[in-house]
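in:
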């Protein structure tokens, strides 16, 4: 008798749980997926993309280019390494400028600690503006204004990625634990003390992780900014393409890959130590 009562109770609980469980494939899910499929089909049709033709026709051209790129030409290895080192320097300096500028904008654009709405609104407009303009456009403008060399690349990377870092910092600050902040406020701590002892310790791991991500990204982007005259190994890559020196192009690509691979592993090691 007790077993039957227990089974009845379990069955009743299961029925109650089933009332709260929603099916995985509701009509809303199917409608949403169908909508996105239609959007993708429209985009493919509008852009006149034929994937079958792309695969069949382009394979022979890729094969021809790859055959011209092999074997890699490392005859000017020292020159390429110096250009790669210059690219890393551009990325590091650009990242430093981005960090320096994004800290105050990140603080001002965080809703929970911003002084007032006007400061918040102006900060948001500034970081969105610099995030919206690609590095290439900034670099092209700065090359005209400043001249060829590393400086346009440094400024373009610094200003553009400042918008990203400030956004990351603001989001991290908005999601911090309010307990330490309230405790510091109740003890009469100043604004700078609250930031130093209540906010920074909580966002430090993500702060370092975001900076390392931006540095990794800036190194990759710095290689491309050389194409518009911003210095570094990108300039060597552009020159090699213009001169149809495909074996030299492959050697530059290998150097870029090895550099990014090493930096990615170093970044992962630093992140693991901080956690």
């Amino acid at each position: 008798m007790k077993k039957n009562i227990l089974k009845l109770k379990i069955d009743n609980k299961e029925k109650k749980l089933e009332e709260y469980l929603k099916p995985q494939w509701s009509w809303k899910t199917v409608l949403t997926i169908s909508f996105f499929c239609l959007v993708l089909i429209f985009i493919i049709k509008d852009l006149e993309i034929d994937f079958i033709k792309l695969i069949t026709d382009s394979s022979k051209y890729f094969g021809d280019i790859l055959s011209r790129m092999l074997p890699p030409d490392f005859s000017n290895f020292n020159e390429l390494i110096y250009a790669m080192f210059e690219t890393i320097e551009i990325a590091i300096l650009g990242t430093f400028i981005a960090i320096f500028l994004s800290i105050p904008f990140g603080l001002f654009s965080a809703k929970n600690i911003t002084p007032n709405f006007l400061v918040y609104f102006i900060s948001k407009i500034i970081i969105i503006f610099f995030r919206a303009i690609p590095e290439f456009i900034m670099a092209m403008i700065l090359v005209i204004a400043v001249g060829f060399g590393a400086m346009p690349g440094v400024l373009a990377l610094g200003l553009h990625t400042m918008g990203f870092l400030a956004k990351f910092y603001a989001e991290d600050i908005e999601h911090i634990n309010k307990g330490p902040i309230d405790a510091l406020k109740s003890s009469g701590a100043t604004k700078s003390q609250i930031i130093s002892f209540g906010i920074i310790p909580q966002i430090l791991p993500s702060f370092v992780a975001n900076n390392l991500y931006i540095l990794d990204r800036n190194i990759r982007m710095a290689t491309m900014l050389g194409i518009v005259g911003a210095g570094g190994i990108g300039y060597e890559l552009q020159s090699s393409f213009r001169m149809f020196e495909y074996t030299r192009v492959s050697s530059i690509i290998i150097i870029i890959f090895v550099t990014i691979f090493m930096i990615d592993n170093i970044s992962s090691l630093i992140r693991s130590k901080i956690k």
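note: The chain has two domains: 2-59, 70-274.
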